[in-house]
Amino acid sequence: MKPWIAFLALLAGTAQAAEPGEIPVNPALKDRFYFGLGAFFPKTTTQAQLDSATLGVGANVDFERTLGMETAKTVPNVFGRWRSGERWRIEAEYFELNRNGSRTIDRDIQWGDTVFPVNANVSSSFDFYDLRVSAGYAFFKRTDKELGVALGLHIAAYDVSLRANAIGNEQQDVLAPLPVLSAYGLFALTDQWAVGGRLDRFSLKYDKYDGSLTSLGLDLTYQPFRHVGFGVGYRSLFITLEASEDSKRARFKQTFEGPLLFLSASF
Predict the structure, then answer these.
(1) Which whole-number Å values give the CA distances from 64 to 3, 9, 56, 224, in the listed order?
(2) Beta bridge pairs of residue 102
(3) What's the CA gap between 205 and 226, in Å, rounded?
(4) Residue in 7, 97, 4, 43 with CA at minimum distance from that of residue 258
(5) Residue 247, pLDDT score
(6) Rounded distance, CA 240 to CA 64, Å?
(7) CB under 8 Å to 37, separation ≥6 — which residues?
(8) pTM above 0.90, yes or no
(9) Which of 43, 179, 226, 238 sits between 20 and 30 A of 63, alpha carbons compared?
């Protein structure tokens, strides 16, 4: 099942989760502040290209297959939510994925102004950071459920380099603030159990950026204590981005998908 279809099914299927006549009072929908710290287990695919005004169109590089980067890694994930009123909320979430690879390449690779010849041993690094911030408004709000829309940013940062002895080092940094529209829902199943989800979407061309972004987050939380709870979730992030920096043009196509385990606190 497609992730966004699962998201819509989640919103439709959990609205009637509570027993008839009972209205759960869950801290996730009541507390003003909500924070989480967890471990994210994404599987990743990465394709990137660095064009040069001097050498022209660069090679499209699969960093996992061609340069030997690992496809799975455990990384920290932090998030928080502040309810500024009955219907308004501000959210933020952050994770980073830093990887290195080393492999003898089987073809020439042009990366920016540098050409790495076949049989060269190329070391690479690919550091990615994503900060999501949004302000949302719940157009439907009850004690045990809410549905809303939000406007926000995914601030995506890249730090990528390829290097080889006697050939050189070519590095490119990109910082891209990508505006997104979001839809979210949060439902109390009981006083201790809650389920929520959000979908972010961006697709446009502005300034020096051109691309699209889709992000999905699903959470199931259990809060047996007044201020402390536990949760399991799912996160996915799909990015296609072109960014012009000085005399170069960077192109990225990435996917991040995997489960999330977290500890939460609210008050």
Answers:
(1) 24, 33, 24, 41
(2) 123
(3) 46
(4) 43
(5) 85
(6) 17
(7) 76, 77, 78, 262, 263
(8) no
(9) 179
CA distance 232 to 38: 9
Tell me which CATH homologous superfamily contains domain 3-266.
OPCA outer membrane adhesin/invasin (2.40.128.100)
Looking up tokens 């399991």 gives 232
C-alpha pair distances (Å), 106 with each of 48, 63, 101, 109, 119: 17, 13, 15, 9, 6
> Looking at residue 5, what is its pLDDT?
52
The structure tokens listed for 177 are 């603030």
Token pair, residue 15, equals 């609205």
DSSP state of 176: E
pLDDT tens-digit series, residues 36-85: 999 999 999 999 999 999 899 999 999 999 999 999 999 999 999 999 99
What is the SS3 assignment for 30? helix
- Residue carrying the six token digits 């990109």: 174
Assign 3-state DSSP to the chain and report helix, strand, coil percentages, each to 5: 5, 70, 25
d(CA 110, CA 169) in angstroms, rounded, equals 12
| Token pair recorded at residue 14 | 């959990």
Instruction: Decide: residue 225, CB within 10 A, 0-12 exposed, 13-18 middle, 19+ buried.
Output: exposed
β-sheet bridge partners, residue 83: 89
Distance CA 68, CA 123 (A): 9
Q: How far apart are CA 175 and CA 155, in angstroms?
A: 7
Q: Does residue 153 contact residue 179 with C-beta atoms inside 8 Å?
A: yes
**Which residues are paired to 174 by β-bridges?**
158
